[in-house]
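Quick log. Single chain, no ligands specified.
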Amino acid sequence: MLAAAATVSVPFIEDRIRSSGRTSSAVPTTAPPAPPPTTEGRPSAPPTTEGQPAGPTKAQYIAAADKLCFSAFDEAGDVVKTERDPLRRFEAIILIHDDLLLRWSQLAPPHSDEAVVDRIVDLHQQGRNEARRTAAAYRGGDSSAYSAAESRGREADAEARGLSSAYGFKVCSKLGG
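-> predicted structure:
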């Protein structure tokens, strides 16, 4: 049952491990649940002389977000290499995902793209929330809740990956699943 849930982002992470040859250090695997990131605290772009927010270009935004995702995949790859317990590995990756989503939600997207970017980040947050429910159900031995949470998480992640890819993300379009 946990095998499917413990593969969140793992195929991409394992590819990164094989290609990097990195060694790693242990990553803490338990922490209190993080509050969900919001886009409300995101900095707004300074206004231009015409009164419209300047903000980053789409290419600049994608590069910044993909850099965050790349770093998170790298960190998760270290966990996959060092943590042998599937549940602890899964929970450690959830914590990394929490940090990634918090950082990503704080990036100011191009003004005209705020709605689509908010939707992408929100879907990833939904997937992460379902991953937490999956882990809790597994711990509690509730296979029905486990299956339901895993299914909802995979749906949210698949939609997020599709929107991310369509938007132009290269690395962030590999999150979840």
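The CA atoms of residues 54 and 129 lie 33 Å apart.
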